[in-house]
Amino acid sequence: MADIKPYTIAVDDQHLKDLKTRLSLAKFPDELDAAGWDMGAPLADVKRLTKYWRESYDWRKAEKELNKVPHFVTDIQCEGFEPLAIHFIHVRSKIQGAIPLLFIHGWPGHFEEVLKILRPLTEGGDGIQYPAFDVIAPSLPNFGFSEGPKKRGFALEQYAEAMNKLMLKLGYNEYVTQGGDWGTHISRALAHLYPKHCKATHLNYDSANPPEYLKNPLLALQHAVKPYNPREQHGIDRTKWFEKDGKGYNAEQSTKPQTLGYGLADSPVACLAWIFEKLHDWTDAYPWTDDEICTWVSIYWFSTAGPAASVRIYYEIAHNVDGRKDKMDHQRIRAWSPGVKLGFSHFPMDLQVLPSTWVRTLGEVVYEKEHDSGGHFAAWERPDDLVTDVREMFGKGGGAFGIVKGATGYTS
Description:
single chain; 412 residues; alpha/beta; 16 helices; 9 strands; 13% strand; globular
């Protein structure tokens, strides 16, 4: 379509100069003796990263790497809101009948997360041994190089609407999704709101309620009498840690995002520390390089809507600012979604790692895989595992094989 245009990431020189100036003027807090990660991002690490970001990191090199994949931008308008220029990566397989897969990132992630699984799914799927996929990886509104709305109330319904309209605009009347974090929640909203288009979702983040006897009698009985396996018990412990010691950011972003936004928008060090803490705490000892961290945070700092915009999604989902009926909140997306097949990959160091009986209350679960390592950013931390799981779910013999009409991912 004429209004789908190629896009090149090209941060203005003045923006780069401003970043270095702000980094050079950074004022750091002190730190208590023997302070560790339990109190937040350590001072020595943040100072080291700030120095590296200012003196050694090469954004132009990172920008060149990011631009090696095809980027596009197109206007998408959600009902009641202004049109937004939505940025996305789109790689088509050479295999006719490739499965259209919408990769949805979360916070503090972005489109970059897809890069390690992009080629294996599109080029590695030969249509004979492995299914082939067309992969679409947008920057969500308010993230990356997409615009953000200026009107309040852009909530889960609108994120799902924007993603569905993008897929339809690209010519995919039916598609599947993959995601974690907000990608899980938006996929669940798509399953509820657009089941004729979103046919299946593969998720690497658990978000569900325990089974209830009135709603899920068999699962509730199983949950009551069957002890947790080691994976599930570890997951319960990890989830308790997150609820007790790791969720402070969520409370702030869900209640006072504007106040937090002043620090994120004005101070690159504040933006760095806020995100770096999650990259450390939410992964399974992933060996982050300084370049990886700086690129990750730079995408937020240079984002079209600004880093403060990215946290508003928490507030809008938690509050019904326009009094809409049947708002798509966290409880509603945890309701059973008929007709949309579900798959789960459980990684032990994610934030919510729930028993199998819990996630099976969401819908028809046709695929589950337990992994012995990995955390919140599965596509970045464990790309090979995630690719394998997606292939197994949608490939021949998988529970979602042939779910998209005319697009099995195979040549025959």
